[in-house]
Design goal:
The chain contains ten helices and eight strands. It is of the alpha/beta class. β2 and β3 form a beta hairpin. Bound molecules: zinc ion.
Length: 327
């Protein structure tokens, strides 16, 4: 599959819309991207009233965008029921809650509508081709009331849609990194969404207690995943595995190691999801990983580039120079 002609698709890059008021002494917990815009701040009260979302394309990243409100992604489960007699509206509510989690905490939403169906094959996938109406199509491999499994699969595929996966070759050298970020999307989202449900944000009131099941699902899923004390230690592991990553993008255990490495960063600063929108812009099929990181950095709007630097640094790589950036 070659580079699609709609590479210039417009996406909402949502720069935080937030007003934080903190009345405790100590370090302001606002995320670093928001800090870029802080107009007032002191130890006891932090007021960030930079509000805006901007439309950004590869060609106008440096221009001042018109203020727009991010739209919630329309998501439709495109079949009458979800197996085992379960109504499609329940599956749809889970998918909508996933997208809502990315919007509320990360400030990101996919640009177009999404149709969700069950896959005939036993794996989930985000299709390259849109539906006749232009909707992105996500096929899931679950049925019945396995909501954690459904949410996990949908969050992963939704992340692929956020990266406009259809604009790049299906097979490229750094597909493993996109796969790892999409695993991170699942792990981060279920944990965050579970907390939201427990806090009263469930689609239905009687689903509130299921929030703990969402959190437990990812805790169990990641409990045996190796962790590293320092970025340098992780970089050493990554470098020793890069050839295997290049050869097999979807080794889920390896993808999960990368995801778990980045999870604390995204937990502390969910606005980092905003730079994932630019991961595939300008992607070159045969770049090695350091070059891929540099390209991602260069393709990201300047105001958001510190987030790419931060993510790379967590993996032991530097990207904000023109020099070879091997750790
Ligand atoms: Zn994937």
């Amino acid at each position: 599959m070659g580079i699609a002609t709609d590479h210039e698709v417009r996406r909402n890059a949502i720069i935080t819309t937030s007003i934080h008021l903190f009345k405790q002494d100590g370090e302001c917990p606002c995320n670093p991207l928001s800090r870029l815009y802080a107009s007032a701040r002191n130890k006891s009260v932090c007021l960030i009233a930079f509000v805006l979302a901007c439309l950004v394309t590869r060609n106008d990243v440096a221009q001042q965008p018109p203020p727009v409100k991010p739209e919630r992604t329309p998501i439709t489960v495109d079949q009458p029921e979800w197996g085992e007699g379960i109504g499609a509206e329940n599956a749809q509510a889970v998918c909508v809650s996933v997208a809502k989690t990315f919007l509320l905490h990360g400030g990101v939403a996919s640009a177009g509508s999404i149709l969700v169906r069950q896959n005939k094959d036993p794996w989930p996938i985000a299709l390259t081709d849109p539906a006749p109406g232009g909707e992105r199509v996500i096929l899931l491999a679950t049925s019945g009331t396995y909501w954690s499994q459904l949410a996990y699969q949908f969050a992963h595929e939704y992340c692929h849609v956020l990266t406009t996966h259809w604009t790049v070759p299906v097979k490229h050298k750094n597909m493993w990194f996109a796969e790892s970020l999409c695993e991170l999307a699942s792990i981060w989202c279920l944990d965050r969404m579970g907390a939201d449900w427990l806090d009263g944000g469930a689609p239905y009131g009687n689903w509130k207690s299921y929030g703990q099941a969402l959190k437990d699902y990812v805790a169990e899923h990641t409990k045996d995943t190796p962790t590293f004390k320092t970025p340098e230690a992780f970089a050493a592991w990554l470098n020793s595995n890069l050839d295997d990553f290049y050869a097999d993008a979807t080794n889920r255990e390896r993808n999960k190691v990368v995801a778990v490495r980045l999870l604390p960063l995204f937990r502390n600063d969910p606005a980092l999801w905003q730079v994932v929108l630019y991961l595939n812009d300008g992607l070159r099929r045969d770049d090695d990983f350091p070059a891929h990181l540099r390209q991602w950095h260069a393709s990201t709007p300047p105001v958001l580039r510190p987030a790419v630097v931060k993510i790379a640094a967590e993996m032991g790589f530097a990207v904000n120079t023109n020099e070879d950036n091997k750790p």
